[in-house]
Amino acid sequence: MTFFNSYFFIVLAIVAGMMMPTQAAINSKLANEVNGPILAAFISFVVGTLALLVYILLTGVPLGNLAQLKNASLVSWTGGFLGAFFVASAVVLVPKLGVALTFSLLIAGQMLITLVLDHYGFLGVPVKEVNIQRFLGVLLIVGGAVLIRKF
Q1: Per 3-state DSSP, what percentage of the chain is helix, strand, and coil (rounded to 5)?
Q2: What is the mean pLDDT of the chain?
Q3: Mean pLDDT for the stretch of residues 116-137
């Protein structure tokens, strides 16, 4: 990876990360407008699906690859369920906990599971064993969530 590419991907990750709490706040507002968090999450997924369809059509992503779905493992099909659970949970949590606490807890949860996924190489990710530095990094994130909750 070139110097430019590595910074591009770092910035892309930061911007994408910024979209998650923004999306949750927008979906929370939508939940108030349609009087229901699950309906708001559903609308969010419909709009997202339409946006991806437009992207596919505009960029020429080959739809023939959809035929490979017949070979997909059962686990591969659960990604949409997990995404729906995440979005719906965020819509429910933001009005109860606020954006900062909700996302600090979500990130703490993400970091905890990343250690397990990396350490054991679950779901085909490369193995990256837990060490004290990585564990301390997660503890700092959890500590940040505690501080946000407290103050």
Answers
A1: 85, 0, 15
A2: 93
A3: 95
